[in-house]
Backbone:
């Protein structure tokens, strides 16, 4: 075992646990009740999910049909399935399936 | 609105899209780790102890290039700073009476995708429960760690023979984020979502992908302050 690797892993893992758990254990959401922090926190969820979607799709937005077309069909499949069934699981699977099928068809 | 508190098994089944998205990414991490000269045991240790995708890939680059331990650690820690916001945002949606007795354990699994899935379920009217959080988090964590181990032992090229499957699995997480976004979207949140999206693109193009994510989240959350 590489000890530098283990040291870095333990430091980063401990920080990750602290970032994820300590704000919950301190119930910072209760301290925020009614104030500007509450509005900030309630906007954090939608902002985070929108950010993660944009960040995950951004590298594929290039002027190249082989890369762009599967992203378009995958995205349309997620939208269509969501509006038809209102199921996160089905919409996700439909998007991945449409993306994979498009890659299979054009390669 | 559902009155029942969702069970551990319900959380485990809700983790399915995350499991299907995590496994191939963790698999490629395992492959990348062994290609960078690390052993399968070391790849396993990184996934088990750090459990944060992007920073693990960066850890490989930093450690294999001989970057100092402290510089590497603080760079990787800074990448995950956004997670500070997830717990309070989730508990705010869960309500004041939501239990947090076991949060010291289930909060470890509060990754981007687990947070999104849990918040989406609450937005759809599901009640908060710690067993559900354990189920959701455990499914994702096991997929991440096992994907890493399989990738580390399989070596490079295993998915290369199946490009369509590999591409479909690679689109699982963007598809999940989009579906989650649709599930929590309402007219009040549109300015927040638009500001977050624009700031992410601007930050990514101007600085880096990590900065884009942090800027997008902060700008979107700040947009929640200015509208009333």
Residues:
């Amino acid at each position: 075992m590489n000890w530098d690797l283990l040291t870095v892993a333990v430091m980063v893992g401990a920080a990750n646990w602290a970032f994820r758990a300590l704000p919950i254990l301190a119930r910072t959401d209760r301290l925020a009740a009614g104030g500007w922090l509450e509005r900030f926190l309630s906007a954090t969820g939608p902002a985070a999910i929108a950010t993660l979607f944009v960040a995950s799709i951004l590298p594929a937005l290039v002027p190249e049909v082989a890369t762009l077309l599967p992203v378009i069909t995958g995205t349309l499949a997620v939208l269509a399935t969501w509006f038809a069934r209102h199921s996160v699981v089905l919409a996700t699977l439909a998007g991945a399936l449409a993306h994979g099928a498009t890659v299979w068809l054009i390669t | 609105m559902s009155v029942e508190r969702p069970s551990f098994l319900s959380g485990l089944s809700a983790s399915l899209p995350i499991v299907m998205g995590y496994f191939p990414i963790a698999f490629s991490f395992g492959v990348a780790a062994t290609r960078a000269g690390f052993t399968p045991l070391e790849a396993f240790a990184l996934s088990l102890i750090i459990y944060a995708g992007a920073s693990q890939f960066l850890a490989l680059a930093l450690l294999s290039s001989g970057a100092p331990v402290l510089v590497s650690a603080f760079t990787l820690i800074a990448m995950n700073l956004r997670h500070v916001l997830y717990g309070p945002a989730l508990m705010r949606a869960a309500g004041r009476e939501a239990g947090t007795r076991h949060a010291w354990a289930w909060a470890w699994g509060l990754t981007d995708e687990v947070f999104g899935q849990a918040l989406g379920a609450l937005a759809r009217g599901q009640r908060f429960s710690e067993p559900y959080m354990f189920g959701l988090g455990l499914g994702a964590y096991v997929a991440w760690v096992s994907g890493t181990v399989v990738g580390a032992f399989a070596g490079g090229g295993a998915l290369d023979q199946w490009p369509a499957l590999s591409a479909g699995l690679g689109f699982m997480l963007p598809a999940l984020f989009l579906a989650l976004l649709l599930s929590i979207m309402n007219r009040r949140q549109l300015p927040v979502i638009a500001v977050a999206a624009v700031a992410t693109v601007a930050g990514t193009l101007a600085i880096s992908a990590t900065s884009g994510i942090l800027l997008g989240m902060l700008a979107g959350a700040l947009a929640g302050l200015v509208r009333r």
About this structure: Chain A has a mean pLDDT of 89. Chain A touches chain B through 75 residues (CB under 8 Å).
